[in-house]
Amino acid sequence: MRLGVNIDHVATLRNARGGVHPDPVKASKLVEKAGADLIVVHLREDRRHIREEDIAKILRQIKIPLQLEIAPTKFMFNYSIKNNIKKVCVVPEKRKELTTEGGLDLKKNYKFLKSNIPMLLKNNIEVSLFLDPKIINVKLSKKLGINAIEFHTGEFANAKADKEKKLYKKLKSVIDYAYSNKVSVRAGHGLTFNKVKKIVKIGSINELNIGHFIIGESIFYGLENVVKEMKHIMKKS
Ligand code: PXP
């Protein structure tokens, strides 16, 4: 199982002072050194964290793949093609949200995706969609010719003990369905050491993408240590 580390919040901290520190490129190098499998960044339309120049530097200085999270817009799709991005995950975006609060609304975005995804695929870009864990989303993705889905784990990650079992079962049944339909399954949002120990038991997940918790914990324990610990938990569980 691959670990993608989202380093957006290193840039959030940098941008809080408008300077150059802490540097997301330095963070990417440490994440790579610690054994992560990919660097993940979200180029938001408001550029509240990662910016184009960060992406250019990361691409030059990092050997592991970069996964770019983008909104379903012509600008972002063209940007990915022009900048030789190899992996994109299409995510919903709202100006006022604190984070990506739910999966992409496939019905609402179906027409745009149907006519624009082929352009990404033609340019050899691997495309995944960030979706709520629902069977209908797996079916619609297949209709779009998509074979990689990242399931939004926010509900499960935020659930307290009383609701967790039910949400775990719901997530597992959709993930198992997707996996049995030859979908490469990824998952992410709100994951912590504790939640990862539980979610990896599902078994059919190919990749976890984790940001906020890893960056937050690294204040106390150091970025390399936290990434190594996350990889360790993923391997042994
Ligand atoms: N995956 C996707 C597609 C996301 O949009 C996000 C949040 O930016 C994450 C994973 C990581 O979520 P978190 O920062 O809560 O770990």
Overview of this protein structure:
The protein is an alpha/beta fold. The chain has a single domain (2-236), classed as TIM Barrel (Alpha-Beta Barrel), CATH 3.20.20. Helices cover 51% and strands 16% of the residues. The protein contains 11 helices and 8 strands. It has helices at 8-17, 24-33, 52-61, 74-82, 106-122, 135-143, 154-158, 161-180, 193-199, 212-221, 223-236, and strands at residues 2-6, 38-42, 66-70, 87-90, 126-131, 148-152, 184-188, 207-210. The protein has an 8-stranded parallel β-barrel, surrounded by 8 helices. Helix 2 (24-33) packs parallel to helix 3, helix 4 runs parallel beside helix 5 and helix 10 packs across helix 11. The chain starts with a strand and ends with a helix. Residues 6, 42, 69, 89, 91, 99-100, 130, 150, 188-191, 209-213 line the site of pyridoxine-5'-phosphate.
State the gist of this model.
Helices cover about 50% and strands about 15% of the residues. The chain has about 240 residues and is an alpha/beta fold.
* Average pLDDT reading: 96
* Largest β sheet strand count, sense and barrel closure: 8 strands, parallel, barrel
Q: Which CATH first-tier class would you pick?
A: Alpha Beta
Bound molecules: pyridoxine-5'-phosphate
Let me know the number of strands. Answer: 8
Instruction: Name the CATH architecture.
Output: Alpha-Beta Barrel
Structural class: alpha/beta
Helix count?
11
Span from first to last CA? 11 Å
What is the CATH fold-level name? TIM Barrel
CATH superfamily: Aldolase class I
Shape: globular
Task: Detail the poorly predicted runs.
Answer: none
Oligomer: single chain
User: What sequence of helices (H) and strands (E) makes up the elements?
Assistant: EHHEHEHEHEHEHHEHEHH
